[in-house]
Specification:
Helix content is 30%, strand content 14%. The protein is an alpha/beta fold. Pfam families: F-box-like.
């Protein structure tokens, strides 16, 4: 409260009360000696009043600080006691363990990093740490990255760093403790190709082989290859998923002969999923027990690096009757006889009863001239998805294997991926007619294709207008005829030059349902279109299709110009930095079929 003494008449309460008001905020007035004394006298009372107010404010601030200190103390008391009432504290340990398990990565094995589960869960509190270490299932997956800077370069050459052995032993010890923490749980382990000095890890990993459930490993050196080939089915009773990448060096062929003798780990009794890259042995000479396999990948789908012989493919089709997914590439072989389809086949084995009743997806690269004969007799009543590429030119003298496969199995197809530039127009139209229930198609440029000109979509200096005729083929005719009437998604990595054909295709597909002439043919409206436009001038295709995006539920993805995907140069990566996630994209055990 303001003291009454500050309300005296001679106390200036505002600028308007000052006799010098007219001169305030000016720079031309110069007070005289008498006026200086007058001004000083006028400021005595206001200065006393200001000092009193400052004292009162200081007292109030002290009171406020005291009150705030009491408030902070009470806040801490209440907060800490409310924490004791938090519902999470009442969660039983078993429920907490279940929550912890959901914290693990869903698409790759756990990483040895303090910022990710499960190690992250051990740093929250004592209880969490105890529960985490008492939960073996948290530690049953492991991704092992390489250790950086194990070697150094000097004028005399490349040699191990002085502390390399110490760091390597520490890393191996940590891995051993991690795996022991898993108890008797089935183990999922993956090691990228960049893992240096893998043989140092081999002994500790082999000691846990009876717990292996899912393994991704590189057998680049003879020691690893021999160790895996020496494992008996009894050594890996729980193994269900196996991914092995071998070295493609011809000089290591002698070290792989043991595989041909007994098959090693490939004969695991419960093996369901098998991926083999650069496998050096002819599978047809091994006779492995793969009747329980549901997923088999015999090459890298992105490069089709390892091609199988026709005999290998035939053996797989005859014996692996439980397959749900199959990926392979087959190389050419000299025929025994030259008989056209319908009058026999030029294969040195019977093609009767080639039936895969559970096969749902098939990805293959065609490098075998008589591949159509091999696939002509294949029966796959559950086949839903096909990805196809070829090294042959499109020719009227050779039926496309895709047509041969669709002849027996086209009615069940729902998804198709292929490069339209590797088919003749006749074969393309036959595929459309043989797969009337197709729902999704992806025109994917082949990385492995007959010629560089076809792979790039060019002949000489001009681009080939491949997509124009395809859009015309898939556009419903005026009499109501339509190929792929149930098609709802079309994605093309092949450049589109005829944008008007694409526009007519989309309009006819979406408007077909409201046109009387199409009502009896069950044409479904298009829901997704993804295309790449070729070089040159373009119409505003997105604007012309905007009404279908807003009102018709169309999802539209248009890239204005075709550009190759950028790649990361390894040289720009900082050397010597520990990257625990390095190679993690390669360690995924649940990839899409294609």
């Amino acid at each position: 409260m303001t003291n009454s003494k500050f309300h005296e008449s001679n106390s200036l309460q505002s600028l308007h009360q000052s006799p010098f008001f007219d001169h305030i905020r000016t720079n031309t007035y110069i007070p005289s000696t008498v006026e200086k004394l007058h001004i000083s006298h006028l400021l005595v009372a206001p200065q006393h009043e200001l000092n009193a107010l400052n004292s009162e404010i200081a007292g109030l601030e002290w009171d406020i600080e005291e009150v705030l200190a009491k408030k902070a103390s009470l806040d801490e008391v209440i907060e800490q006691h409310q924490c004791l009432l938090a519902p999470f504290r009442r969660i039983p340990d078993d429920t907490l363990r279940s929550i912890f398990l959901y914290c693990l990565p869903a698409d790759h094995d756990a990483i040895i990093m303090l910022t990710e589960a499960p190690l992250l869960l051990t740093q929250v509190c004592r209880r969490w740490r105890r529960v985490a270490f008492d939960t073996p299932a948290l530690w049953c997956t492991l991704y092992i990255p390489r250790i950086p800077r194990l070697s150094v370069e000097s004028p005399s050459g490349i040699h191990l760093a002085p502390d390399a052995q110490f760091r390597l032993e520490a890393h191996i010890s940590a891995i051993a403790q991690w795996l022991k923490q898993a108890g008797t749980q089935p183990l999922s382990i993956s090691i990228p190709k960049t893992a240096f000095a893998f043989t140092a890890y081999l002994a500790i990993l082999l000691s846990f082989s009876r717990q292996w459930y899912r393994i991704r490993i590189h057998a680049d050196d003879p020691t690893t290859s021999i160790a895996l080939a020496s494992l008996s089915p009894e050594d890996v009773p729980l193994l269900k998923e196996l991914h092995i990448t071998f070295s493609n060096w011809s000089g290591t062929a002698q070290s792989h002969k043991l595989w041909q003798k007994n098959g090693g780990i490939l004969n695991a009794p419960n093996l369901k999923s098998l991926t083999l890259h650069y496998f050096p042995i002819n599978i047809a000479t091994m006779a492995p027990n793969w009747k329980n396999l549901t997923r088999l990948v015999l090459c890298d789908p992105s490069t089709f690096s390892r091609k199988s012989s026709p005999a290998e493919v035939y053996m797989i089709l005859r014996t692996c009757t439980s397959l749900v997914h199959l990926t392979f590439a087959v190389y050419d072989a000299p025929p025994v006889t030259l008989l056209p389809i319908g009058q026999g086949h030029p294969l040195p084995f019977s093609l009767a009863n080639l039936r895969l009743p559970f096969l749902e997806s098939l990805s293959f690269n065609d490098h075998y001239y008589y591949m159509p004969a091999l696939l002509w007799y294949l029966q796959a009543p559950s086949l839903r998805r096909i990805a196809f590429s070829t090294l042959f030119h499109p020719s009227s003298q050779r039926l496309s294997p895709l047509v041969a496969l669709c002849t027996m199995n086209g009615t069940t197809l729902r998804h198709l991926t292929f490069d339209p530039r590797t088919l003749t127009y006749t074969d393309l139209r036959a595929c459309c007619a043989l797969s009337p229930n197709l729902e999704s198609v992806e025109f994917q440029p082949s990385r492995i294709s007959p010629t560089q000109e076809q792979a790039s979509g060019r002949i000489g200096p001009m681009m080939v207008n491949i997509m124009g005729p395809i859009f015309q083929l898939l556009t419903p005719s005026l009499d109501g005829q339509c190929y792929w009437p149930r098609l709802q998604s079309l994605s093309s990595g092949v450049p589109v030059l005829d944008e008007y054909a694409a526009l007519r295709f989309v309009r006819s597909r979406i408007e077909a349902i409201s046109t009387n002439s199409f009502q009896t043919h069950s044409i479904l409206p298009l829901k997704h279109l993804s295309i790449i436009l070729g070089f040159g001038e373009h119409i505003d295709l997105a604007a012309r299709l905007d009404e279908y995006v807003k009102n018709g539920g169309l999802k539209l993805d248009i890239v204005d110009h075709w550009k190759p995907r950028p790649t990361v140069d390894d040289a720009v990566l900082v050397p010597g930095i520990f990257r625990a996630r390095e190679g993690i994209a390669e360690s995924t055990f649940w990839p899409p079929p294609f």
